[in-house]
Amino acid sequence: MAGEKQKHMDVVSKIKGKKRRGRLNMPLTRIISFGFGGFVAIALALVLYLSVLANFKNTFSLLNDKAILITQSMDRQLRDHFQSVEQAVIDLKPFFDDGTMGFDNIDETLNKLSVAISTNNRINVVVLTDLKGDSFGVYKAQNGKLWPFKRQIPVGGEKTYTLPKLTADSGPTWGALVHSDIGQYSNVSVPLVRDGKMFGSLTAASSIKGLGEVIRSLDEGEDTTTFIIASGDQVIVHSDMDVFQTGNVAEKKLPVAISELGDPVLAGLGSGVRLETFQKAAKLGIEVSDVNTPRDNFIVMRSVIPGYSDKPWVIGQYFRGVTISREVHRLRGSAVVGLGALIVAVLIAIWIGRRVASPLKKLAIQSEHVGKLSLDEVVPLPRSRVQELDQVALAFNSMVEGLKAMNIYVPRSLFSKLMRLGGQEAAGAREAELTILFTDIVGFTALSEHMSATETASYLNEHFSILVEAVENEGGTVDKFIGDGMLAFWGAPDARADHAAAAVRTARSIASALVLCNDKAEAQGHSRVRLRMGIHTGTAVVGNVGALDRWNYTVVGDTVNVTDRLQALGREVGANDEVVILASADTASQLPGEQGEERVGEFVLRGRSTKLDVWKLDPFATTGDAVAAVSTTAA
């Protein structure tokens, strides 16, 4: 019995083993690939089969959608272009109505108009016209340069706008399209009203050239042509001016009447047969017609919109009639190669996606370092076999090297401040109360006589690195290095109430660092170096100073000269001190709780007729506001 039972179990085990060996086992990747591929193949076959059966219906439906999409895209491009121009005069009008800007202060108004036109790349001219007909405004040349004018528009911009009839209640009104030697212009005007009475008008003009480039970009290739007709029969935009689809060549340049252009398709618009199949497009105001020419027939889609001039515009596009049958052939051909192309496309897309994602991820990481101006942390991007990615890598690496080179001459702290505060606006020259610090090494000329040029440069670089670190730690701005001296200031571009105390803290930080360097130098058998520093608080002009493309963010004025004279006075006051810090009474008065100051008297500084009250500061004492802050905290 036991033997029979064992035989039975052996037979069952063999049967189960055969079942296990006969079961189909496939990797999950293969299952997903075949499952997805089979599903897509079946779905694509059904879609293509139904598409072929209903090709005519679908083709006309697609052409309906195409007519709507293209026409609405052109309409949207037009509106986007001109609404920004119209909105600009709407936004500027209240400033004239409430007296903020006007004819009373023309120079100030021109400056503000220059800002407005520079921030809107679709505006070429902004003009103010009073009731007498006198005009002034700002004209933007083709190279982007701004030309403020009074009564006389700069050469080339004389015919860029035409004033429509306006009343005090008029809204934004578009004038007639203007054609000049430098191009075509649309212009919009609003009345300027104060106390219920119109006292002038504001006009903004925009070139059609930029609009034409945008509209021509909607051209889908050699089989399509986009156009805009204004003033009834004037063609102002045509995407195929070199050679028309009919083989003809333009007889005249734009703008030109339809009859004089030489395009037989546009010339035959009046005799075209309206296609009733395009009902969906017709409900949206889009007319689709069939125009026959001696060479071929064409499908024309057009729509009338309220033109941005005194008359409506016609926008449209036309293409060859054979395009319809061509679409059918393309559907049939796609049925043959669609499945294989889809599989190949998916595999290539996965491979390309991985290849593209990796360098883009590296670019994002390194760009974040650039955004923080942490240029030392930026790792150069590797070259790529993809041309565009390779160009991006080369351009990015070149940009980083350029920024590093720029930071050699422009202090990184100053660059960061100007970026944070708004660039040009923050850098504009202005008066401000500043505290200025001048440093100078005592007897450096004699010291450098025993150094080579390389040793002199190395010594100064090490010395200036100490000074710059101390200045930037206190939020100051290094202006320049003058020989073996340094000019720095506080209070701009960042406005701060403690600029005097910050400058004094910096001077004392420099003094402490100098003593440490001197101790190290003395231990190596070198002589100790002495340093003079002058600090003065007063009003100075700070900002961009220069000419043409040579600008420097700097400080100028009597306050700077006084600081230099204070530093030079150190030859007499504290002549034997290792570090002497002299400050004016204007600076000392802004140091509450200062314990390390001593009045040394009144002096007539070189180049000045009045006496200056001078204070000597202990280089190693605690600055006044720091003492006050400690006392407040303790209390």
TrEMBL record:
Q: Where are the transmembrane segments?
A: 28-52, 333-353
Alphabetized InterPro entries for the sequence:
A/G_cyclase, Adenylyl/Guanylyl_Cyclase_3/4, HAMP_dom, Nucleotide_cyclase
Q: Which UniProt keywords apply?
A: Membrane, Transmembrane, Transmembrane helix
Q: Which PANTHER family match?
A: ADENYLATE CYCLASE, TERMINAL-DIFFERENTIATION SPECIFIC (PTHR43081:SF1), ADENYLATE CYCLASE, TERMINAL-DIFFERENTIATION SPECIFIC-RELATED (PTHR43081)
Q: Which Gene3D superfamilies match?
A: 6.10.340.10, Nucleotide cyclase
Residue ranges constituting the Guanylate cyclase domain according to the UniProt record: 435-567
Pfam families per record = Guanylate_cyc (PF00211), HAMP (PF00672)
Superkingdom field? Bacteria
**Name of protein:** Adenylate/guanylate cyclase domain-containing protein
Cross-referenced SMART domains: CYCc, HAMP
Protein species of origin: Roseibium algae
Highest classification ranks of the organism:
Bacteria, Pseudomonadati, Pseudomonadota, Alphaproteobacteria, Hyphomicrobiales
Q: Where is the HAMP domain?
A: 354-408
